[in-house]
Amino acid sequence: MALYPWGVESDVSRLKDLIRDIPDFPMAGVVFKDITPLLADPEGFSLVIDSIAGRFEGLGITKVVGIEARGFIIAAPVAHRLGAGFVPVRKVGKLPWQVEAEAYELEYGTGLLELHSDAVAIDELVLVVDDVLATGGTAAATTRLLERLGAKVVGLAFVIELGFLNGRRQLPGRDILSLLHYE
Ligand code: AMP
Description:
Blueprint: H1 9-17, E1 20-23, E2 31-34, H2 36-39, H3 42-56, E3 63-67, H4 70-82, E4 85-91, E5 99-105, E6 110-116, E7 125-133, H5 137-148, E8 152-162, E9 176-182
Parallel strand pairs: 3-4, 3-7, 7-8, 8-9
Antiparallel strand pairs: 1-2, 4-6, 5-6
Helix pairs in contact: 3-4
This protein binds adenosine monophosphate (AMP).
């Protein structure tokens, strides 16, 4: 059974039980949401993939874009389930071909995200996937990159949304699916 349509509370709490909170990682004051126990659980992992793919199937999506690095782990099986291709968005300097780059906000300063300039076609329908929606800076930069190349961002999917960081404010009007919410 998939988490979407909503209403399966036992699935939500089962998945939350598979997320480990690590206080003060990677820096003081941050509670890191460790999804490795969820990834290691066969039922939990398939529930996540089925729920995201089920929510976005039938919309004509031909590319699923994963954000480095944990986004890759979720995006690739979702792409397979949708019969779409997989596209990586990576931190600066990792991609070997010609890239488009976009700045994103970090706690101190900015970073750069890169996408191969031929990774998506004009008007191609894409879904963006990452593990956590926190401040939304990374996801917003990814949508800017994709739209600069002419792709259409149909939606964004996350396993976890940290509601108290208001990431949705950076993604106005977007179709956003977050499986697990923390306030
Ligand atoms: P942001 O750009 O602030 O929305 O941050 C999102 C990116 O940072 C995602 O790629 C997440 O993997 C990572 N991230 C941010 N906050 C956390 C957290 N508390 N636990 C785990 N990953 C996080």
